[in-house]
Specification:
heterodimer, A: alpha+beta, five-stranded parallel β-sheet, five-stranded antiparallel β-sheet, 24% strand, B: mainly alpha, 5 helices
Chain lengths: 394, 116
């Protein structure tokens, strides 16, 4: 160990230095407190053995300066003193001394006190090394999470398919780096727009990985893996019905094969020619419809989440939309957001926000609702992902 | 055998290293008179605080030689200095000087006896 000794009596200093060097320590000797402070700043010491009473900078002041300085590792400080009163010990310890040794020092006592100091230094170094390793691992995981979050973000709608008489807006707020929520909207063939909002149970890596898997089969691009398009006899593709899509999801993602995770989803298929929205839901919160001059209406659907029970038939529902109508698909992160008193934001506040913002642009209405949810749980922060997809017929 | 210091404890303290003991005795011979001079001057100028500090340093120095009676004499002066009452200081100084005068020669004698 590298030891700094501060002692203004040169015989005591010499004796201490000799003893420490005999035990294999690398010793730097300072002739008083000021000299010790200069030497301390210029080098790295693990242990300081200092006389208490010294002119100008005494042992107490030296310890205070050491404790206030920024050192790479812990410095174990032993004060040499003839003082043994409790109040003296308290003064020394409050200044930052770790141990005391009476003068003239006894070799055996010095040896055991130094050994105690060495144990502390070794423990501190080992702890510092572990912390550095943990920090590295943490940084690596953070980078991985950020990369994964970017991948997840890339699955969100890149542009809004304002096709024909439709207009869309969405908002997506994961509560952690990685979300269990995901949503998308896309043209499907020439006559349809597909849209979905889904919520995998839990958050984090496992939930996000499952969300990526689901996104891959919910692709509007014709491929063997897409559930949304079916090959027809003429070599083209038919659009699968929402009920068929949800039932197929339920077949492909049973809970036991998904790490005991399940998900809720609402999938809608809007017919650009008829203005009809067909949709199916698997355990998802109700779709909300807002028609001009009417109160918003939550279309309740009783159904099971995907993954719970094999071979379930899902009902398909149809809503006829007219110009000016708005529909809202969302996850339970909105109605179930909690304030500090554990009161939920609730469906009624959600519907009120949708109604109050009916005359402003759809994107602003969506933002306004998400902000209301954030304000509701601003003290505790959102505990669930918040996702919202809205469509308006022009 | 001197009654000025504990010979066995001192030899243990320096691990019977006579060369090192000689080095420290030399330091005592050099620094001791200076410190005694500071003590004398503090008493003459009735500077109780300076007396306390100098006597404390002297005490620490001679303690290294396991010289109990000299340590006690220095402690008495340190205590007087800290109390601020210097009435008995000249007498205590005389006692310390008497012991100090004999200590270094006694240590030299030990050195001579123990050096092979």
């Amino acid at each position: 160990m590298k030891v700094l000794i501060a002692e203004d009596d040169r015989i005591s200093r010499r004796m201490l230095q000799r003893q420490l060097e005999k035990w294999g320590h690398e010793v730097v000797a300072a002739v008083d407190g000021s000299d010790a402070w200069e030497k301390f700043q210029a080098d790295d010491f693990s242990i300081v053995v200092s006389d208490w009473m010294m002119p100008e900078v005494d042992g107490i002041e030296l310890v205070r300066r050491i404790r206030e300085s920024e050192t790479a590792g812990y410095v174990f400080v032993i004060l040499l003193t003839a003082r043994s009163k409790t109040e003296d010990i308290i003064v020394g310890m409050e200044a930052g001394a770790d141990d005391f040794l009476s003068k003239p020092f006894d070799q055996d006592e010095l040896r055991v006190r130094l050994r105690a100091g060495e144990r502390i230094i070794h423990l501190e170094r080992s702890l510092a090394q572990r912390n550095a390793e943990l920090e590295q691992a943490n940084q690596r995981m953070s980078r991985d999470l950020e990369a994964a979050a970017r991948v997840q973000q890339s699955l969100l709608p890149a542009t809004m398919p304002d096709i024909g008489q439709t207009h869309f807006a969405w908002n997506y707020r994961p509560c952690d780096e990685l979300a269990g929520d995901f949503l998308n909207v896309f043209p499907l063939g020439n006559k349809h727009v597909g849209m979905y909002v889904a919520d995998v149970s839990g958050h984090g890596v496992a939930a996000s990985l499952l969300s990526v898997s689901i996104s891959r089969v919910m692709t509007p691009h014709a491929s063997a893996s897409s559930l949304l398009l079916k090959a027809d006899l003429q070599g083209g593709h038919d659009v699968a019905s929402p009920a068929e899509v949800i039932a197929e999801l339920n077949r492909r993602f049973p809970m036991e094969e998904c790490g005991d995770r399940y998900f809720t989803i609402v999938y809608g298929l809007f017919d650009l020619e008829s203005g009809q929205l067909r949709y199916a839901s698997a355990g998802h919160p109700p779709v909300v419809v807002l028609r001009p001059n009417q109160r918003p209406e939550a279309l309740e659907v009783a159904s099971l989440a995907v993954g719970w029970v094999p071979e379930v038939d899902y009902d398909e529902h149809t809503v006829q939309l007219a110009p000016g109508d708005r529909i809202f698909l969302y996850t339970d992160g909105i109605p179930e957001a909690m304030d500090p008193e554990m009161e939920q934001f609730g469906e009624s506040r959600m519907l009120a926000s949708i109604e109050e913002t009916r005359s402003i642009p759809l994107a602003d209405s969506v933002t306004s609702l998400v902000r209301a949810v954030e304000t509701w749980c601003s003290h505790t922060g959102p505990k669930d992902d918040v996702s919202l997809l809205a469509m308006q017929m022009r | 055998m001197s009654d000025l210091f504990d010979q066995a404890a001192l030899l243990d303290r320096v691990d019977h290293d006579m060369e090192f003991l000689a080095e420290t005795i030399e330091m005592l011979e050099e620094d001791g008179p200076d410190l005694l001079g500071q003590i004398r001057e503090a008493i003459a100028s009735r500077d109780a605080e300076a007396l306390g500090v100098a006597a404390h340093t002297y005490k620490g120095m001679v303690a290294n030689f396991c010289a109990e009676s000299t340590v006690a004499a220095a402690l008495r002066l340190e205590t007087l200095g800290k109390s601020g009452n210097l009435a008995d200081a000249p007498e205590a100084l005389a006692a310390l000087e008497g012991l100090a005068q004999k200590l270094a020669p006694a240590l030299r004698a030990l050195l001579q006896d123990e050096t092979p």
